[in-house]
Amino acid sequence: QVQLVESGGGLVQPGGSLRLSCAAFGSDFSINPRGWYRQAPGKQRDMVAFISSRGIMEYADTVKGRFTISGDDAKNTLYLQMNSLKPEDTGVYYCYIGGPLASWGQGTQVTVSS
To answer: Does residue 82 contact residue 19 with C-beta atoms inside 8 Å?
Structure first.
């Protein structure tokens, strides 16, 4: 059974930064596609940042230049560094790991507001 444990969400003012973390248990981030998704209130869950199994990174147009996805293979942890946050970045952020044991994290709330 795969468990993804997320942390790092919270309330931040516009222009601020947050770093989300996602620790994986039972599956290996480094060999599977993995990424972060966001679900705003009343909207569908959309991809924010993604790393393919070949290590190719992809970002949603709305976050390019502001967000950075990375990983620590030794800790089997995925990160999302979010800078220059905007109110429209508000939502629940979910960590995802693909492969034969594809799984979602429980989600962490990010609220960008003054």
So the answer is: yes
Residues 58-84 have pLDDT tens digits of 999 999 999 999 999 999 999 999 999
How open is the CA angle 69-56-107, to the nearest 5 degrees?
Answer: 35
List the structure tokens of 89: 């970045």
89 phi and psi, to 5 degrees?
-80, -5
Tokens of 65: 């230049």
- Please report which helix (H) or strand (E) contains residue 81, including its range: strand 77-82
> Residues 87-98: pLDDT tens digits?
999 999 999 999
User: Residue 35, Cα to own-chain centre: how many angstroms?
Assistant: 6
β-bridge pairing 10-12 and 3-7: unpaired
